[in-house]
Write a structure and sequence with these properties.
With 280 residues, this protein is an alpha/beta fold. Helix content is 39%, strand content 19%. The structure holds S-adenosylmethionine.
Length: 280
């Protein structure tokens, strides 16, 4: 840690404080975040503000959420000349992001997200952003490389599951750049990928009732080794015959597992379930 640059700041491993200092890399990450002068950026986890600066150079406005209150005075000095950037001390997981964005950016601003956070909250943060901030045109996020593979996974891949399905259902998912551990100070134990999720105008496929779809995806992958029929029985309290006949209607065997179905097929199943429950 560069103590002389940031006074007596003590880096907190528990908050995932691994910082990027290479200015060329930070400029590149800001470019990959797709931010333009039209955009208001919600940055999550600014650290010392190293990425905040190039983001603010490109954006109309930036709001940065930082949980560590000891970083706030440092950020205020770092961002002194970046008048369009504002720092808020808050935990992203305890913040109503939709309200925050409306309060600070107004109703009609084009919103983009950039995040570099501890890896143990990656899944929760992505899920929160997908649900709470549908107006965000894109989410650029640094994550563990293996989790990047999961976001891109398809049927039959090890990582294929709810995270991949929800990300790909709502967004076009790109691995914008691999970032080796050595690019961070201190270097974490794992390599990273900078992923960019571009929100689709509408979900990739029609899933019928969205609540049914959410329940299906979470339930169908909760017990991965169980057949889809068995998971449907548990999640939707259906009879075996009803569950099997829904799959048969789609041309699927009753022995199929959820991990073999494409997102399009899962959406079709969600539509079938939506109609099935409407009949009751
Ligand atoms: N963006 C900086 C960079 O690239 O150098 C810092 C990234 S560092 C990996 C993660 C940052 O997220 C730290 O500053 C940490 O304090 C902050 N952080 C951790 N958990 C957070 C949370 N729940 N809400 C907001 N910020 C958080």
């Amino acid at each position: 840690m560069k103590q002389k640059k940031h006074g007596s700041f003590h880096q907190k491993h528990s908050l995932g404080q691994n910082f990027i200092e290479d200015e060329a890399l930070l400029e590149e990450l800001a470019d990959l975040s797709l931010v333009t002068k039209e955009d208001c950026v919600l940055e999550i986890g600014p650290g010392f503000g190293a990425l905040t600066k190039p983001l603010s150079d490109r954006a109309k406005r930036v709001i940065s959420l930082e949980i560590d209150k000891t970083l706030i005075p440092i950020l205020n000095v770092t961002l002194e000349h970046h008048k369009n950037a504002q720092v808020i001390c808050a935990d992203v997981m305890k913040t109503n992001l939709s309200e925050l964005v409306k309060e600070h950016f107004g109703e009609n601003c084009s919103v983009r997200v950039a995040a570099n956070l501890p890896y143990y909250i990656t899944t929760d943060v992505i899920n929160k952003l997908l649900r709470e901030l549908p107006e965000a045109k894109s989410i650029a996020i640094m994550i563990q490389k293996e989790v990047g593979d999961k976001l891109l996974a398809g049927p039959g891949d090890d990582g294929y599951g709810p995270l991949a399905i929800f990300c790909q259902y709502f967004c076009e998912v790109r691995r914008a750049m691999d970032v080796p551990a050595a690019c961070f100070n201190p270097p974490p134990k794992v390599d990273s990928s900078f992923m960019v999720l571009i929100r689709r105008d509408a979900p990739a496929f029609d899933a019928g009732n969205e609540a049914v779809f959410q329940r299906l995806i979470k339930g169908a992958f909760a017990m991965r080794r169980k057949t889809l029929v068995n998971n449907l029985i548990t999640v939707f309290s259906m009879t075996r015959d009803d569950a099997a006949s829904l799959l048969e209607k789609m041309g699927l065997k009753s022995s199929v597992r959820a991990e073999a179905l494409t997102i399009e097929q899962l959406c079709e199943l969600s539509r079938e379930l939506t109609s099935f429950f409407k009949k009751d």
